[in-house]
Every structure is written in C-alpha cells, then in structure tokens.
Amino acid sequence: MRAFAKTTLTGAVERLRPGMKVLLPPGCGEPVALVEEICRQAARLTDLVLMGGIHLGDYPFARPETAALRVATWHMSPRLEDARRRGRVDFVPVRYFDAVSEFAAGGAWAADAVLVHCAPPDGHGYLSLGVAVGVVLPAARRAPLVIAQVNPNMPRSRGNASLHRSQIDLWVEVDAPLLEYPPPAITDLERAIGRHVASLVPDRATVQVGVGAIPQAVLEALGDHRDLGVHSLLVDASVELVERGVVTNVAKRVHRGRMDIAEAMGTRRLFDFLHDNALVNMESSAFVHDPSVIAQIDRFVAVNSALEIDLTGQVTAESLGPRQVAGIGGQFDFVLGASRSRGGASVIAMPSTGRDGAVSRIVPRLSAGAAVTTPRFLADRVVTEFGVAELRGKADSARAGALIAVAHPRFREELERGATP
Asked: Which region holds residue 321: left if phi is over 0, alpha if psi is between -120 and 50, else beta?
C-alpha cells in the first residue's frame, strides 16, 4: 500500500535522486509540469536518465542547460541530436512489444521511478492514464516509486488503463491542457498513396496506422469502406470514421465491437471522444503489440512507412545509413502479426523519392550501415504514389521488378541496372 500523498511539483521531484532511471509517458500523455520541474532541478540530478519514446514537446531535458540529465529512448528524434553528440543520449533498439518488459522491473532498463499523467480518481479510487497506456502502465505497476500528475483535462479512458490510488506514492494537481498532435496537412502525393493503400483494405478489416501525413491520407481514403476496426493508435481522423459509421469493430473476433488502443494522439476532439467511451478499450502494449494477439484478428491490415526499401524487400524505417533518426516502434510487431492473420496483409507505404525528389527511396541495396526494421522474408506489399508492389512469395527477380515498377520513373533505369546480378 502506497501513501498517495499530495505534494508540490518541487516536493515530488525532490524524491528523485541522481542516477535514477525515470520512465515518461509518450506523446499527448507527457506530464509537462513534472518534466519542467525535473529540468529546473537538473543540476542536482546528475546522470538521472529520462526514458521514453515519441515526445511532442521541445525536449527541454536535452538542452545544454540541462546537461546533467541523460536520455534513453527507443525512438530517436532530430531534437536529440545535439545531446547525442554530447554523449547524453542512449538509443535502445527495442520493438514496442519488448519495451514493456525491458523498461519494467526485471528488464535491462528497469525504471526506478515512473511518472504518470492521470485523470482524477473516480469514486473507487482509480486514476485513468487516459491517452498513454502502452509501456508506462505495466512499468508503473511494478516500479519502486510512482509519481502522478493529476489533471482534470485528462480523459478517463476505459479498459486496462488505470492505477489505483494505493499504487501511487505521490501526486501533484496540475490543471493544464494536454499536449496536442494536430492532424498533419497532406498533399496530392500523400492522397495518391492513401488511395492505393485503401484499395488493399477489404471491408470488415481491422486497420493499424501510425502518425504522419501518409497515415492521415490512408484514414481519409477509407471513408467508403464498411465495418472496419481500428487497432493500436487512435488519432482525430479515426474519430471521424467512427462518427460516419465506417469504423464499427463488429467483425473483430477479439473484443468484438471495441477497438484495442495503447495510445491516443490528437486534439481536444479526440480527448473528448475518448472520455468514458465504451467503444475504446485501452490496453498495454503487452497486449496491443503482441503478434499472437494480432494473428487472431482476421483481415488485419498493418500500414507502416519506410525511409528506404531495397530490391530484395528489406525495409529500414529508422536510420539513414548508420545514423539513427527514428525507432523500430511497432512496425515489426504488426508486420509479423499481419503475416499470421487470416486474410491479413502488411503494407509499407512511402513516397517514391526523398530529399525533395533528389534520391529514390527504392534502392538496389540499403545504405551501408542501415538498420533493417522489417526483414525481406516478411515483405508483403509496398505502396508509393505510383502503385502497389506485391512481394509476398515472389522470387528475388520478380520482387525487384515489382518494386522498380512503383519507383519514380526518373530512377527506374538506374534501378534496373542495379538489379542485374
């Protein structure tokens, strides 16, 4: 039984000690006030390690003035580059499903403390983590120290989403807007990709998408589909599909009628939709990212992106050569799960070119030192603005030909030469 003692921001952060490993919620769930207080006390918190994934803020803990702090992340960002060059950032190459165990008690990065961002307790003493459950909830249930930022603006989400007050040591009251992730603007290029991806999604499928312009375009292109399900991530565009009757989740064999979500990233519209909504079942990533769970969902369509894909079907979604720029995320989890789903498919959707058209994203071989996020033996379908390359079950020469056909025309001849043994 923990104290659930109310305190100030200063008092809460004073419980942290130099060298501690402290896990943060990602995305819209970041407890901004607690993070700002850690930064204010950074000088005494030498080598305290802040751990997490995607952050929407400006990474104040990675600035030169907070150089006493360290960062460990499973999702690199350009905003961490300066701190990385100063030797203050560790990248942990772990997929989302394994992050649950690696950052909890018993794992290689077991948290000494977990910060959570919660709605106020209900009548039974339960505090919902609202928009960010994935990795942080299981870690908090086993951590030596749990500090909660309690915020009336946090939606009270349903499902496996709550800590009881007896599982929280300290809490601070902060009435402040959540960080928001507004829908990204999309161009005709993303719309073309979105239409191609939508053509691969059958009615009654369950769809997983990430964040960014292409996922936004995919969701917008699904407006004429029927009885879809949504899995893993909830964004504003998903809400519109629910409201239009496109997403019903009625065809799911697992939690029929509900969507299983680990994180929600959006605006107040999304937060209001999420609040006390029985259609949304929040779950940890131990469930949502488990390939064996995904395999039980018929017609599971995983939609992910890439920085490069080579003519054998190897995908990198995380590095430019040896330089880490993103993370493994859930891509491998979902690609593997989709490969075992009855009627399932995995789609890698990306523009055909990068650097404002200067380079092809489809290449003869991945750049030297590039990390393979999805191996060639799981390559299924690749989509660019020029169409769909079907790779599953094809020999090397046939898959190279399929990929060249969806490359930008300006690079096809060069790719054909590169494909020649």
From this structure: left
Alpha helices (H) in 213-351, listed in sequence order: 213-221, 236-243, 268-274, 285-288, 291-294, 331-340
Q: Which fold has domain 188-419?
A: Glutaconate Coenzyme A-transferase (3.40.1080)
CATH fold, domain 5-173, is Glutaconate Coenzyme A-transferase (3.40.1080)
- Give, in order, the Cα–Cα distances in Å from 54 to each of 31, 79, 292, 314, 407: 13, 11, 25, 24, 30
Element (H, E) at 11: helix 9-13
Amino acid at 364: P
**For residue 390, how many other CB atoms are within 10 A of its CB?**
15
Q: Residues spanned by CATH 3.40.1080.20 within the chain?
A: 188-419
- Spell out the per-residue pLDDT of the chain, length 421, in tens: 788 999 999 999 999 999 999 999 999 999 999 999 999 999 999 999 999 999 998 899 999 999 999 999 999 999 999 999 999 999 999 999 999 999 999 999 999 999 999 999 999 999 999 999 999 999 999 999 999 999 999 999 999 999 999 999 999 999 999 999 999 999 999 999 999 999 999 999 999 999 999 999 999 999 999 999 999 999 999 999 999 999 999 999 999 999 999 999 999 999 999 999 999 999 999 999 999 999 999 999 999 999 999 999 999 999 999 999 999 999 999 999 999 999 999 999 999 999 999 999 999 999 999 999 999 999 999 999 999 999 999 999 999 999 999 999 999 999 999 886 6
Residue 411 belongs to what H/E stretch? helix 409-419
Name the phi and psi angles at 23, rounded to 5: -90, 135
Token code pair at residue 360: 């092809």
Q: Are 348 and 338 in contact (CB under 8 A)?
A: no
CA angle 52, 56, 76 (to 5 degrees): 50
pTM of model > 0.70? yes
Contact 161, 277 (CB under 8 A): no
Q: Are 160 and 137 in contact (CB under 8 A)?
A: yes
